[in-house]
Amino acid sequence: MTDIATYNFAYLDEQTKRMIRRAILKGIAIPGYQVPFASREMPMPYGWGTGGVQVTASIIGPDDVLKVIDQGADDTTNAVSIRAFFKKVANVAVTTDTATATIIQTRHRIPEHPLTAGQVLVFQVPIPEPLRFLEPRETETRKMHALEEYGLMHVKLYEDIAKHGRIATTYAYPVKVEGRYVMDPSPTPKFDNPKMHRSPALQLFGAGREKRIYAVPPFTEVVSLDFEDHPFEVQTFDQPCALCAAENVYLDEVILDDHGGHMFVCSDTDYCEKRRADGHRGHLAPKADLAPGNMEPAQ
Amino acid sequence: MYVAVKGGEAAIANAHSLLADRRRGDRSVPALRLDQIVEQLALGVDRVMSEGSLYDRELAALAIVQARGDMIEAIFLVRAYRTTLPRFGYSKAIDTSAMRVERRVSATYKDLPGGQLLGPTFDYTHRLLDPELAGGTDVAEPLRRDTEAQAMPRVSAILAREGLIEPDGEMPQDHVPGDITREPLEFPMARDIRLQALSRGDEGFLLALGYSTQRGYARNHPFVGEIRIGEVELELDVPELPFAAPLGAVRVTECQMVNQFKGSAKAPPQFTRGYGLVFGQSERKAMAMALCDRALRAREFGEDVVAAAQDEEFVISHSDNVQATGFVEHLKLPHYVDFQAELDLVRRMRAEYEARESPAKVEEKRQAAE
Predict the structure, then answer these.
(1) pLDDT per position as a tens digit, B223-237
(2) ipTM of this complex > 0.90?
(3) What is the pTM of this model?
(4) Beta bridge mates, A296
(5) Contacts of B7 in chain A (CB under 8 A)
(6) Mutation test of the interface with chain B: which of A35, A46, A87, A272, choosing the one with the most B Cβ atoms within 10 A?
(7) Taking the domains of chain B in order of start, what are their residue ranges?
(8) What are φ and ψ of residue B279, in 5° steps?
(9) Residues B78/B60, Cβ–Cβ less than 8 Å
(10) For B184, which residue in chain A has the nearest alpha carbon?
(11) Is B136 left (phi over 0), alpha (psi -120 to 50) or beta?
(12) What is the distance between the alpha carbons of residues B296 and B285, in angstroms, rounded to a whole number?
């Protein structure tokens, strides 16, 4: 039984990759449309990024440079685990540097550093259907998309305003893609929604458990749903990053003690490290700082 | 002073080496061998093969050891392996009437051709813990039949002669059987696809749903027409050969549930059927599957869909334990980015709420804070 553990480049067999690439191409051809695909069992659990991993495995080549983030950070355990997986099964170069990565697999964030043409951002998606929490049945939601019947979503957003005075959706905020499909941007904070709009990078979304792939091709219109009198707004923070003094970035709240002490730091660890290396100092930054994480060589 | 946390890689490696240690346990106790598991925990092995959708006892035993006896984890290991295997083709449909039967019981007839054959069953054992097993005492050889077994026609075939039960049914000539491991699920689905999903569905989930039909949530008046357990031959049509190539035998459990049906606008009064088939020996699973299959045929018979067990999208979307456990357990992954977004919203709404409730109090608080 020692000969059983031989795997193809990037784990998936070529037939499966071809099937997934076809789904990706269809997704690119119909921006925002959820393409059903025959998702495989992966060696990590469903719900832990199997959709993103299958997309990445299908598009990655030996010359690619891969970055994996979770919550914006390169060093969260699941990001470490997925990066290690591709180092092992595809032997590709990995990096934490947003600019040098050719493929960035992400969970819950879009990097702060603007993406460029030629880069691919792969999102891990838990529930791809933006209408799911309004209508649990797939048979119904597919019909609603086909008929462009999105009234229910607008009613939900309107009810939010009527009840709470504002749209009470802070992440997985629905967007309309190229004026046609309403799409779930995955559970990224709505702060990141504007980054999707006319992004020069290709954005691919993989939902393994739900067996759906969708895509936003480069330079595509991605508009967050809103009302004329209640325009879409992103989160703002009262203070800059405590480590690198960055403003207009998404911050994590770090609890410092059990007396309510806390600080706000960049959620994008690579961005924060780069800024500190460039000499930016926040009001709580330590004197001697970490060197930025750079390219790790391939095995 | 806060410094961004590093060291995920080392932490993961250390956690996994601790897992390996705990898996092995006390080194003075001999390590389990796979053949011990295959032979002595055979029903656990069967469940892993069945829900892992891979008929290989040795790999199932390996998965059980690797998973420290966690069945769903073992099933997951097997699934993640099977999905990498090449697909050579599809075997011919198995013929369960030609099964080499080890157990066969029918609850609808006192006696029937081929007879009732209890086989290796827990039924009628008294559930008294047996201290002798702890000592590993010798077990006597069982009785073996010395004659060829009689032919055992399926009970459904016996009932069919009177025309009182719906026939086996036939797929249209051009119907290509579906494959849930190669195509995404779509609703509504054909029965072949549904049965595949049920056969690898979680035993506990199907058991609970089947039970719910007995308690009145879509009651379907079931009788066990027949349960049979034994080995069936597998054959593959190979284009180069003039005959079907035998591949070997697999052990399966088949349950034919017979359900009373008063007739509807679509069908005459007759007995209808629910069908269960799983790898290995698992009557509970096969019976639960048959109950669910019959409940899920509600639309076909023009019955009202009023209960969870009849709702195809509900049942099939949630029956896979590998999917279910992954998504439930993913909640332990970090979600602090989204939580931060919610925290911000709740704080703002809370501030507005308090300002509305008592502006004076808020002002008081603010002054106190300053």
Answers:
(1) 999 999 999 999 999
(2) no
(3) 0.89
(4) A94
(5) 75
(6) A46
(7) 13-82, 96-121+150-168+177-326, 336-369
(8) -65, 145
(9) yes
(10) A38
(11) left
(12) 16
